[in-house]
């Protein structure tokens, strides 16, 4: 197991290649083979990611299970992997969600004939013109998984940048090439627009980051550190061997932060997300908001705070204000949405505001809460979005107004949708409550006004989550809803683990906090911050009486 991290990254990549290389064909058996191969590769990745998390010692070194392979010697670039508690948890989240996405998307890329629509035209070889669609779809999902896992494990700044950007390509094709069949006659054009917007926004952020990466290397090389190795750079910055001038550090910080804020996304760089999620399949929407976007918030913790501690403290108040605006703005727009998927997208923008707020509150509670929020939001939003996708595929519409009374004809579907809705509004006893509470407490101890204002997001979340449930699941049964079947065995196999984890981590989050807290404390020490002392400390006592 000496190359455990490499194996965890390689298995989904190899699975993507095998899935794409399978012989094309129009038969259901060939499509099933493609899906089984993809599901098997994601299952093996899950096992390996779980082994990584189990082997990580919270009381050991910051980065563990380290591996390094020479890549571009002349620039000091090595394919270096290492895992801290935060990376281990987020890679495990990714490995949990991808098999769920594959199962939920089992028929999303089938040819129209298989999905009940008009048959495709047969090609010269007797296969359908789109016979490769199923293979391409699942290969792209596995490719995204591989690149995301590398991003969570990478300890070389340049390697991280390469995979941070490379994951945009398979996501672009998933958004633009495999859209929701309930999108209507303008769906193809809208998907193309959403995919291009996603790509352009994130490419712009990546180009700005590339300039910052090059700038960091040039400055480090001038001082004898011709390397992209993250532990080496952060250690040299922390002890003063590598010094960045105030202006240079701020400029480099903004270059990195801009790219991460686009991907997260943070208001006002968020506008690509509602389009991308609205036009994607439910599975692709989960990949966007529960997997890919987490790389942005994770990178804020690992790179912004680690490499640019003084600039992080300088810009923290401004970033907190943007996060607060995102919390309120996203929730308000979610309330006014008529499209189910766009509502979930704007709700996610609000949730990412909480995550970013926790990161830049620069307190242990805030950053632990932010890391837990990444995990809990991934689980709860995946459950909410996938059940919504099952509902949309049955009715053939994304419009809230086309639903009503679903709980009377599909009670299990309605019940799981209710749990997802309650998790989204951070009901106590469900996983998001713990993380949201920690973020608010951690923010309040250093920035009380922002912490108090952010609580408005809780009230607004209750409005959009419960109104959506009320309008779709309760009331009289609408005509187009009467024939909706309840969840099938495959769909229950998708939703049940997500619901179980949401409840388990809401009741007992200690396994996650034990993993992430040492990494959070190490991050705070890098920015030379400690938790603020209580404003009104309890007086010392003696013999049970207050002095």
Structure description:
With 547 residues, the chain is mainly alpha-helical. Strands 1-2 form a two-stranded antiparallel sheet. A two-stranded antiparallel ribbon has the order 3-4. Helix 6 packs antiparallel against helix 7 and helix 14 packs antiparallel against helix 17. It starts with a helix and ends with a strand. The C terminus is likely disordered.
Structural class: mainly alpha
Query: What's the average pLDDT?
Result: 86
Helix content: 55-70%
Q: Mind summarizing the main beta sheet?
A: 2 strands, antiparallel
Low-confidence stretches: 114-129, 539-547
Count of DSSP H/I helices? 21
* Apparent shape: globular
List the helices and strands and how they pair.
Elements: H1 4-21, H2 28-55, E1 64-72, E2 77-83, H3 85-104, H4 133-153, H5 157-166, H6 168-177, H7 187-222, H8 230-238, H9 246-263, H10 272-279, H11 282-307, H12 309-335, H13 340-360, H14 364-395, H15 406-409, H16 411-424, H17 431-446, H18 448-454, H19 456-473, H20 489-507, H21 510-526, E3 541-542, E4 545-546
Antiparallel strand pairs: 1-2, 3-4
Helix pairs in contact: 1-2, 1-4, 2-3, 2-4, 3-4, 3-11, 3-14, 3-20, 3-21, 4-5, 4-6, 4-11, 5-7, 6-7, 7-9, 7-10, 9-11, 9-12, 10-11, 10-13, 11-12, 11-13, 11-14, 12-13, 12-19, 13-14, 13-17, 13-19, 14-16, 14-17, 14-20, 14-21, 16-19, 16-20, 17-18, 17-20
Index terms:
547 residues; mainly alpha; two-stranded antiparallel ribbon; two-stranded antiparallel sheet; 4 strands; 69% helix
């Amino acid at each position: 197991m000496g190359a455990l991290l490499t194996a965890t990254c390689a298995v989904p990549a190899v699975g993507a290649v095998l899935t794409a290389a399978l012989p094309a064909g129009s038969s259901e058996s060939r499509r099933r083979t493609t899906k089984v191969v993809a599901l098997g590769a994601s299952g093996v990745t899950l096992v390996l990611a779980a082994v990584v998390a189990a082997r990580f010692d919270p009381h050991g070194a910051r980065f563990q299970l380290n591996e390094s392979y020479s890549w571009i010697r002349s620039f000091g670039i090595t394919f270096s992997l290492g895992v801290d508690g935060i990376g281990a948890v987020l890679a495990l989240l990714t490995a949990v969600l991808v098999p769920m996405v594959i199962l939920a998307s089992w028929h999303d890329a089938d040819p129209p004939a298989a999905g009940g629509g008009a048959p495709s035209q047969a090609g010269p070889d007797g296969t359908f013109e789109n016979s490769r669609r199923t293979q391409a779809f699942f290969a792209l999902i596995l490719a995204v998984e591989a690149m995301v896992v590398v991003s969570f494990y990478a300890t070389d700044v340049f390697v991280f940048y390469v995979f941070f950007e490379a994951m945009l390509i398979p996501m672009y094709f998933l958004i633009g090439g495999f859209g929701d069949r309930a999108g209507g006659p303008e769906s193809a054009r809208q998907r193309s627009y959403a995919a291009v917007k996603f790509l352009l926004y994130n490419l712009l952020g990546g180009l700005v980051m590339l300039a910052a990466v090059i700038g960091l290397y040039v400055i480090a090389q001038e001082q004898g550190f011709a390397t992209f190795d993250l532990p080496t750079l952060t250690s040299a910055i922390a002890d003063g061997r590598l010094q960045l001038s105030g202006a240079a550090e701020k400029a480099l910080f903004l270059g990195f932060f801009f790219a991460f804020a686009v991907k997260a996304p943070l208001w006002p760089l968020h506008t690509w997300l509602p389009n991308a999620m609205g036009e994607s399949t439910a599975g692709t929407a989960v990949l966007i908001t529960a997997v890919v976007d987490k790389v942005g918030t994770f990178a804020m913790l690992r790179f912004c705070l680690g490499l640019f501690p003084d600039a992080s403290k300088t810009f923290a108040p401004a970033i907190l204000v943007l996060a607060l605006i995102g919390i309120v703005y996203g929730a308000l727009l979610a309330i006014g949405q008529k499209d189910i998927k766009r509502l979930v997208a704007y709700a996610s923008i609000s949730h990412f505001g909480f995550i970013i707020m926790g990161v830049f509150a620069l307190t242990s509670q805030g950053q632990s809460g932010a890391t837990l929020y990444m995990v809990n939001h991934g689980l709860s939003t995946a459950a909410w979005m996938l059940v919504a996708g099952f509902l949309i595929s049955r009715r053939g519409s994304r419009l809230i107004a086309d639903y009503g009374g679903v709980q009377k004809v599909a009670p299990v579907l309605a019940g799981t949708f209710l749990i997802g809705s309650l998790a989204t509004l951070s009901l106590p006893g469900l996983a998001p409550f713990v993380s949201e509470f920690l973020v608010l407490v951690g923010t309040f101890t250093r920035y009380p006004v922002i912490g108090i204002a952010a609580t408005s997001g809780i009230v607004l979340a209750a409005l959009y989550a419960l109104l959506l449930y009320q309008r779709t699941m309760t009331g009289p049964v609408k005509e187009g809803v009467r024939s909706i079947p309840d969840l099938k065995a495959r769909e229950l196999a998708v939703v049940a683990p997500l619901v179980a984890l949401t409840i388990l981590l809401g009741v007992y989050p200690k396994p996650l906090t034990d993993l992430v807290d040492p990494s959070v404390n190490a991050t705070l020490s890098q920015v030379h911050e400690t938790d603020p002392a209580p404003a009104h400390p309890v007086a010392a006592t003696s013999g049970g009486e207050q002095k």
